[in-house]
Sequence to fold (247 residues):
Amino acid sequence: MAGGITTPVLVSEVSNAGGLGSFGFAYSSPEIIGRDLRLAQSLTQGPINANFFLFQETALPDSKTIQLAIESLREIAPDIDFVIPVSPFYPDLEMQLEPIWQLRPSVLSFHFGIPSDLIMQRARALDIAIGITATSPEEALQIERAGANFIIAQGIEAGGHRGIFTNEVTDARLTTFELLPQVVRRCTVPVVAAGGIMDGCDIQKAIDFGASAVQMGTAFLCCAESGASSEYKAALMAERPRPSVFT
Fold:
């Protein structure tokens, strides 16, 4: 979970409890990545995962479209001075990975695609396992062919960004338990189930469906160690349960 939710304390406590504590470093600077990873490593002897996004090149919309967007935003928040963004629109992955190569967490995972051969080779040379998100069986096969150590099978229920990256494949919006058995059946590497997994019953079901492990995010949002604001935690706890909504 990017955006400051995965604090060093949360990550280390998950690892201390026998899990794989994971950082969401998608938007973080190399300095923050190095600082947080060092602190977490000082708090646990367990494994740590660092997760990154593989951002796609994005063209800036034309000026008319931008102006319309700003005017719409001003209607909602008139007191905010909206600034037109300038390139680059996302962090430089090579720079983000520099502290990773220095500090060598046990696992490196990616969202929205498959990293370059150079990144894969460097991780292998440093004995860092690589996991990559798939939202379809076709993506999972590509990930396995690329040499990933494990596949994260992400269902439509996932609270985080949908990690689809194969534009040629129509998104079937498979649920976790529709996608999971298909990936397990077609691939030989371990598969981690992700999306809507909140408790022990969900974990057991995923294992019964062939998962080697599960990935959980939302379940940890309201933990004391989470970096979510107190207001956000209170809003989550006050919300009534309802079906997942894809936005």
